[in-house]
Amino acid sequence: DLDCKEYLGEIKWKDGYSFRKCSNTSYQVRKDFSRTCNSCSDTESPTANTIFHRVRFGVRTAFFVCFEMANTTKSLSATQMGVRYGIAEKTARLFMLKVKEAMSSSENRPMDGNVQVDEFVLGRYEQNKVGRSYDAKKKKAVIAVEFTDDGKVKRLYALNIKYFSARSLQYMFIRHIDRRAKVTTDKWKRYRPIAKAYDITQLESGKGSNFKALHTMVHQIKSWIRTTYSWVSKFNLNRYFNEFCFRINRSQSKNSIFNNLITKMVNSDKIYQSEIICS
Fold this sequence. Notes:
A hairpin with a 5-residue loop joins strand 5 and strand 6 (153-161). The radius of gyration is 21 Å and the shape is elongated. The chain contains eight helices and eight strands, in the order αβββαααβββαββααα. The longest helix has 17 residues, at 212-228. By secondary structure, it is α/β, with parallel strands linked by helices.
């Protein structure tokens, strides 16, 4: 635990620190790597006001959970994580939701290359139902995938939306797609209003043949949620999308993915239970 706290402290205060009460910058380092102000004696721990704030099962175990979530290829449910590390399932789920929140994109580097966009639904199969479903029980989402020049997946983002409308779809463009990007969609009419602001080319889907790689990523997201979690609430769906996209987008930088996640968690504000539990 002390090694982990030292690691958190190095990240948290790498640019120095001024204390909350008096803005003084001189301090002493305690045995648990907390900082105590030389002026007002205010003490702050490395975990304070981060996502590790008051973690119930020790920082070392929290690091193990973060490592699993950042590096596993199939992911683990809260039930599996609880059994593996000897913590309550509810406690594991709450902490994992906080980690998923930290995995969200900073939105500072929107996709600016060759991008394909499509919509999909999450929910059970409806017998004798063909085409896009508007069933209120199903969860609606939009996905955007950026490809390299040789057609390989470079980055992807998925977003839960309320309706299959141009107004809902545009949030993906605003948050993750640069105006310089070359965007390709199918010929669904809801993209036409967005084409006034973005360079969008609409092609026939050809029953998916023109968007094979995109549909493969949609299938992977659905399979991952179905086989790992069985069911995900609409309230937290975007947090699960965050986790999936975080790993895919950093799959070529495994050596730094854990440090990247811990840094994001340290730089994030603490999250209260009420923010991740649907009332």
